[in-house]
Amino acid sequence: MFMSNDHTVNGLSIETLLINLVSNILFILGIIGNILGLLIFSSSRRSWQISSIYACLATCSSITNLLCLIRYVSILHSATRQPFLQFAEQHRWACKFYEFSFSFRVISAWITLLWMFERLLCVSTELRSFFNRWNASKLKFIIPLMIVAMIVGAVVGLPVYMFEPQICVEKINNGTKLIARGCCRVSPNASVQWQLYFEQVSFGRNHYTVRCLFSELIPAGTIILINGYIIYHLRTYRRFHQTSSFKTNRNQSRTTTSWMNIVLILHSSLFLTSLFSHIAGHIMNLEAHETWWVSLAVVINCSLNFYLYCLSGKAFRSEIRRFVQRFETRVFYQ
């Protein structure tokens, strides 16, 4: 649900200019970084050989980051916000697409969880033996994908189906004045129960609670738990490796696995930061998904992942060099 007012940027014009400037910079960095990440993860032979699921999820994460970046920059930037919202107010399909675009964020959250679950299986012998014992290696991702599809349907599917553009009456000046604005809300033909389900902004049996749980609270809690276990495993393995007096012929594979884990920890930590900003926003302002600083946190999350990967260590930078070398070979020597 949204209304086409200027509540996302309520400050002075200098604040609007700064937000626009930051949006432009992050948009450029995000487009470049996510495209490079998409190309590197999809073409990294070592990653695909060690774990094709890891490489696939990393590629999907770059795609959803691109979609989220375009969606939230369009809302955040003053030059595109009003045309974007007004277009959704006037066209039924645009209203439904606006609601559907929130699924990019939900899908991104659960791709990150599946990505971390894949790493958790790699570092946890107990989980691997559990799935091997029941011969359920295929089900370990089919079931989560089915769960994600049901979550996206519950969080996004219902609004897409039931919302449509209409004229809404809003109270301003402490309720002393009424104005008519365009908005995208649940159809007036819907029952009273459905209208209350979507319009109540409090924790209870309503869409607001479902949205908070499955797009923010559950992903945040799960990321913290899995991240903690992976970090504990990495520290334990490093301590064992330092005290060990022998070397194995699998050091190269373990080095690759190590940077894959570090990349995922950095990615999930940045994502967790944006989730915490959203959760804090809900505490301070119930309509947190409409505030400019929450949108800015999402844009930062979608823009800077690749550059954090570059800081993860020499292994990822080596992957970049290999990608550049393969690109130069194909372009200039064929």
TrEMBL record:
Its main location: membrane. One of its GO terms (molecular function) is G protein-coupled receptor activity. It comes from the Eukaryota. The chain crosses the membrane at residues 17-41, 53-73, 102-121, 141-163, 217-237, 258-280, 292-312. The keyword Transmembrane applies. Coiled coil: none annotated. Keywords: Membrane, Transmembrane, Transmembrane helix. Residues 33-309 form the G-protein coupled receptors family 1 profile domain. The lineage of its organism: Eukaryota, Metazoa, Spiralia, Gnathifera, Rotifera. SUPFAM superfamilies: Family A G protein-coupled receptor-like (SSF81321). This is G-protein coupled receptors family 1 profile domain-containing protein. It is found in: Membrane.
